[in-house]
Amino acid sequence: MLRIIQFCRLLPILILGLQHVASAGELDEYLKLYEGRWVGYFTIHSSANGFSETFPVEQQYWLASGKLHGVAVSQRDSGMESARSTTYIVEGKLISEVTRGKEVEIFIGVRHDSGILWLPKEMERANDYQIKETFVVVHGQRLLKTDGFDTFVHGDGLAHIVYRGELSYKE
Question: Architecture of domain 24-170 in CATH?
């Protein structure tokens, strides 16, 4: 669960009313789905200013000592970016600590609509920044799909950046 790359301040919705309380065993099984190498593309787009960028991303996840560890690398127009994550279970919720350089961001993940909804630990940002990750199989290929948004100030108001990612499992 690399909420990696700073651009990935992605997608949550208010947990209230949406949270499916999952057992630790259920979440453990879900974390196992992340294990391995994932390769694909992310696209960032804002209709407010017409910005759009598509770039390659590679993520690697492994379980060790009851935690899911991850590393992500992307090649953006601005250069190479990387991040690391550690994800673990606390009281039926996933907690993911994402490190980029010296900056650490913490996300709370809950099961929602056959995926994981990631919210910033600072819940006041939950309406402004959300990420949802789901696993699907298309034509026999396992995919990790990411959808999200972040809010920024543009002109006299607020605008959204939309994130979309599709990574394929590679053996």
Answer: Beta Barrel (2.40)
